[in-house]
Design brief:
alpha/beta, eight-stranded parallel sheet, 9 helices
């Protein structure tokens, strides 16, 4: 039985949890979960994440606009985010970033919204939670320009990119994808990653680790990722969990 598990990236506001959200969130502590950061993807889910953080002592939140949600934003979206971010349980601006896998057509708008939120995080002195899918070059260029505190979640870049990210002082988040058959690149990054830069996450309801791949994910499945990380690094899985939790608390100041 594992303990001291901190899920640094979850989406418990997702409709996949509509039928049993309260039961799920009420039971996670019994599975050894000590903390969860719920990430917003748009204004609505950011507000929902704020509400959940008020109901559960171990739940924190991040507010932000996901790159797939950059269209149809109200003009004052930054003001709304700024206000949400004043909440005592808001620990980051996220998730924000670039996604050229799903959306090639909104690249310029994605970059604009990403940078504006980076500036907001800087103004509020908050770390960021970055989503980068098939957009490594532009993501790195923007990060190098702003040098934020934060994490690249569900890291899918190369070892070379990871080195650049580490040079910036940022963290790297791993979740279920590390356990997938095609995870060769992620495993190479995990091998070279200094332990003090590792975060663990679910990105639930998505990305459930093997052997639960394809099912609904939740924070109680993080030990499968910690076990994989243990195999790669030679560390004991509980030690991996302890280190990642310590890192998460340090980065997000909780
Ligand atoms: Ni996410």
């Amino acid at each position: 039985m594992y303990k001291n598990i901190f899920d640094s990236h979850a989406h418990y506001t997702d409709k996949a949890f509509n039928d049993d959200r309260r039961n799920m969130l009420g039971s996670l502590k019994e599975s050894g979960i000590c903390g969860v950061i719920n990430c917003g993807a748009d204004l609505e889910s950011s507000k929902e994440a704020l509400k959940l953080s008020e109901e559960y002592d171990y739940i924190y939140f991040a507010c932000g606009i996901h790159p797939e949600e950059v269209e149809k934003l109200p003009e004052n979206y930054l003001d709304i985010l700024r206000e949400l971010a004043q909440h005592e349980k808001c620990v980051a601006i996220g998730e924000i970033g670039l996604d050229y896998y799903w959306r090639q057509d909104t690249k310029e708008k994605q970059k604009e919204v990403f940078e504006k939120q980076l500036l907001l995080a800087e103004e509020l002195n908050l770390p960021i939670i970055v989503h980068d899918r098939e957009a490594h070059g532009d993501t790195l260029e923007i990060l190098k320009k702003h040098k934020p505190q934060g994490v690249l979640h569900c890291f899918s870049g190369s070892v070379e990119m990871a080195k650049e990210v580490l040079k910036l002082g940022m963290y790297i988040g791993f979740g279920g994808a590390l356990t997938f058959k095609n995870a060769r690149k992620a495993i190479e990054v995990a091998e070279m990653l200094p332990p003090n830069r590792l975060l663990l996450e679910t990105d639930c309801p998505y990305m459930a680790p093997v052997p639960m791949r394809g099912k609904r994910n939740d924070s109680s499945l993080i030990p499968f990722v910690a076990e994989k990380m243990g195999e790669i690094t030679g560390l004991n899985p509980q030690e991996v969990l302890n280190i990642a939790t310590e890192n998460t608390k340090r980065l997000f100041n909780v």
